[in-house]
Specification:
Strand content: 25-35%
Bound molecules: adenosine-5'-triphosphate, magnesium ion
Number of strands: 18
Radius of gyration: 23 Å
Number of helices: 11
Order of helices and strands: EEEEEHEEHEEEHEHHEEEHHEEHEHEHH
Largest sheet: 5 strands, mixed
Distance between the termini: 36 Å
Length: 413
Amino acid sequence: MKEVTVKDKFYTAIDIGSGNTIAIIGRVGSEGELKIIGVGGTVTRGLNKGLVDDVAELKETVRLALESAQQYTGRTVLDGAYVGVTGQCVSSMNVMNLALQSSESEIMTAARIKNMVESSYPAEDQDNEILHVIPIGFTLDSYNRTRNPLGLHAKTVEVESHVVKMESVALKNLLKSVFANKMNVNGAVFQGLAASEAVITGDEREMGCVLLDIGDSTTDIVIFKEGSPWYSTVIPIGSQMITRDLAAVLNIPFSVAEEIKIKHGHCMPSMVNATEEIIVPGFQGANKKVVLTRDVAVPIHSRMTEWLRLVTQGVASSGLRAMPNGGLIVTGGGSNLPGLEALIKDNLEIPVRLAFPHGIKGLPTQLQKPEYSVAVGLLLWAVKHQGQKQNYSQDNIFSQIKNILSGKERMAV
Ligand SMILES: Nc1ncnc2c1ncn2[C@@H]1O[C@H](COP(=O)(O)OP(=O)(O)OP(=O)(O)O)[C@@H](O)[C@H]1O
Ligand SMILES: [Mg+2]
């Protein structure tokens, strides 16, 4: 076992999903190596579509996840967590700002670039908190477009940034469940961007691609263009809709429908054995019944076709005229559904890849599943942005957030 040194840094990630809450604790040693030292998870209670509907239950959910992650670490890690957030209360926009106007040409130093990016933050908005301001391009002297102006000279500089924000009240309600467990919050990260950290390759970002994280009650969408996130949105449909459909069609409780979905679900009726049968337990005195796997696949196919239509609509509403060449990268627990890749390929003529955290040094195989993309991505995000804390605190969260966002937590350039 490696000895812990004072230079080791600890990071805690909490993915509070509508279906499952996962906490991961990681340690980065003096040589930069990441080691996962604790993983905990539990079924989420008190959250639906990213919105808190029961504060006490959600607090208990976070407690259970943190406690089970910490039991492996041999120490209490209370340095502050990076928390994933999602829901229709998350939105994005791209802003273009004139950041420098000078009569003499000026050299772009790292400090000047940082100042320019900071000056491009959007004006305060009473109802929303800004989660991220990510620089996506610089235009020098009206014609020289670059992603990295370091060392160049220019008289004028415009900065284009991708801004992700979240309704203040929804964020405040969610973070309460973390504070109530005596844990600070170092960063609130849009779950779509967190998942991207864990599953999207550099080439896919450069070619342009669409990340889809299908969770229990939401699907996060992030479009990448020319290497940067360019559009972020959330649609309020996840894999839970399938379970609800099966419960209604087969007249069975939700929990039984969930089991049937996981064990026998498929979204392509044409791909399942036409004669294979499933025994469905009886409910409220009714006899058990036998249904064909294909009959279970039919409503799933309808629901997922509708889901894909909404995803396509979500992508189109970004203003993008065609799907990017890097294609769709699909992750999240809902992407475990057999036949999903075939269904997408049947409807869209673009590359599709089912993705999970992979190729990350030291990542246990246990975490190499699509339902861990957000939690693992949050940890990678934390390591990448180390030292930059939003420092959300339980007391007067709003003034804290405003102060800190006016200078500290933003993307590094
Ligand atoms: N093999 C499977 N087939 C179909 N669905 C599956 C399978 N495995 C998991 N799921 C579904 O994935 C969903 C959970 O995924 P995930 O943990 O990514 O969601 P979440 O993060 O809790 O929710 P959200 O992101 O919407 O807040 C559940 O609805 C679950 O039924
Ligand atoms: Mg999720």
